[in-house]
Amino acid sequence: MAAPETSTAAVPTLYTNNTLRNAFGAVLSFFIILLIGVLAFSIRLFSVIKYESVIHEFDPYFNYRVTQFLTKKGIYDFWNWFDDRTWYPLGRVIGGTVYPGLTLTAGTIWWLLNSLNIPLSVETVCVFTAPIFSAFASWATYLLTKEVKGAGAGLTAAALLAMVPSYISRSVAGSYDNEAVAIFALIFTFYLYIKTLNTGSLFYATLNSIAYFYMVCSWGGYTFIINLIPMHVLLCIVTGRYSSRLYIAYAPLVVLGTLLAALVPVVGFNAVMTSEHFASFLVFIIIHVVAFVYYIKGTLSPKMFNVAVTLVVSVGLAVCCAVIAVLIALVASSPTKGWSGRSLSLLDPTYASKYIPIIASVSEHQPPTWPSYFMDINVLAFLVPAGIIACFLPLTDASSFVVLYIATSVYFSGVMVRLMLVLAPAACITSGIALSEAFDVLTRSIKFQLPGVSSDAEVDAGETSSVTTEARNDEVKAEKPEETSKDRPSKKSKKKEREHVEKPSSKSKVKTKSEKKRLLALPLEASVVSLLLLIMLGAFYVVHCVWAAAEAYSAPSIVLTSRSRDGLHVFDDFREAYSWLSHNTDVDDKVASWWDYGYQTTAMANRTVIVDNNTWNNTHIATVGTAMSSPEKAAWEIFHSLDVKYVLVVFGGLIGYPSDDINKFLWMVRIGGGVFPHIKEPDYLRDGQYRIDSQATPTMLNCLMYKLSYYRFVETDGKAYDRVRRTEIGKKYFKLSHFDEVFTTHHWMVRIYKLKPPKNRIRGKTKRSKSKTGSTSSSKRSGTEKKNPWH
């Protein structure tokens, strides 16, 4: 009788020790998560520390301008705002054409801070919004991975996401773009979906719909969610994993999520009318058919069930065919079959280059190169396959979702370099799972083979607690009242007898588990070496991420820097040019430039632009491209018909800035030629090559873009050597007859020209024609009247 007393007394002690260990582990995990958030925030501050607190890139300037309007005018004026300073003379309805999530988030943060008497400017809030939400994204990654493979994998994945360069590139301080909050919304929506799938809670399903609504408000990439989740639901149904939890996780998302998405003005009825959403509705029908089949299976006899299944499947197929026919009828009238241009370019990578050059002209819409994968996710590219394998050991509903997520994100990132951002969380999750499993195996192998470790200590706390719990459950079951066994006494008694015979003792269970783990243990030397290699791999990843954050992705595009033997050189030409426009032009003057610089011109110079980065009107952009591709006189007529007073071009030939308008010029030709057929790309090429030297074609040498870029360029060094194209230009000495140079920045990066007024041109022609008869001069005057060249 002594042995049972000893074992019984040991149970509370083991239970107490395990409770203390779990409590300590929870506190430690909390502080690690907190430090990961601090790391995610601080690693993105290099741009502020090295440069200054300034908005980056192009699109963030529009978001900053909209946020300024929201904080000054209020939410109602924001929804009804018609912006007459963009897309002149068309204008733009801001409230109905913008994803408001980022703006409303930053505006709410600014309002809360000012309510607490923390007087931060709108610009400061916009600059630090992305680093703050990167910390939130790391915590959401922890929650998601924890639901899939436990807390260890969650902590590892969160640490990886906090530093991954692909995410840093779009979330540094000053990168005030939609992705700043959208990646957090994406991961948090996936977490709530997996949480609902694991628990079957309608509460989490409702939160999932709300998180999806926030994602719809934040970014057009919400279509990735509403297609990936139906794919996973369909995968679970096909593989026989249907359950009520799957239904609860999916059905409320489609119904409530679609209704909420339709409330966003920029989405509206597209939530039910475009092809990007049809997959969710089709799977919605399928899951209801499957749910009904499972329901009648539990209520009918097998014979009646077969008859009912035949009927349900027949009706279900008929309904599906009817829905598919309606969908085909709805999209058949559309030339793109209900898909947007960007969605078609993802499904068919050659579509944009064939039919929509405006999409293909954007650098972030190009396919990535192989080195960009190693730059943006680094060693995670090698850990992802191991993480996928770990997801199959064992395969659950949650881990199958992660496998599907990484597979689809790898494909989309291979089509468009911008979607490397979607790949980053999936790569961090799978890599975190791989590293966690590897560390678990290696540390356990070392523990089993350390000298002085007794056989009783080989069982970890988790196994002891599980055995203790099983023992207590057995005692509770044995002490159940007899009333519970009155319904089916024979079956339950037989079941108890079988369990009593088949169930081994707790000690034998412990020995069995320890023996299994001992068989899985690696040799001590191999375990130590492998552990050191993993630590070195992690150190290399940290060093690379810090370098990428400090050097590669911290420089704002509006302020350029370069290092040479003389030291650091700063090129602040963009702000210099916008400041000149703001102080030396009238408020109502119109400025023409390529669409890349439209947002910055309206935000920093406060001047009306013809086109900007929204690119919603291809004809308007083609008109500007045609003007830049035309001879000087024809270009003047086009700009004059649009009431343009100033023309801005970006030129990098003097300092070697490659992203100038000369390098973008062929896209202007292609986009302009797509609308106005008299612009032909071969006219600007010599034997298929794009040249600006003496071998360039006459059409190229006489177009407006060439003249505005290289006007007086020969005066810089006497040779007119272009440092970007690495050649001397072909036409060095020429004068402008319809444009006046009014401002050129210090490093010649931005050049601004003013259109000559038509009166001066008429007066000049009159002076030259004094020797002719009065009738001839009057006829010439009538021929120079202002007219629109496109009528």
Automatic annotation (TrEMBL):
It is a multi-pass membrane protein. Residues 459-512, 760-791 are annotated as: Disordered. It holds the Pfam family STT3. The keyword Membrane applies. One of its GO terms (molecular function) is metal ion binding. The keyword Zinc does not apply. Pathway: Protein modification; protein glycosylation. Residues 471-505, 782-791 have a biased composition (Basic and acidic residues). It comes from the Eukaryota. Residues 760-771 have a biased composition (Basic residues). This is dolichyl-diphosphooligosaccharide--protein glycotransferase. It comes from Hibiscus trionum (Flower of an hour).
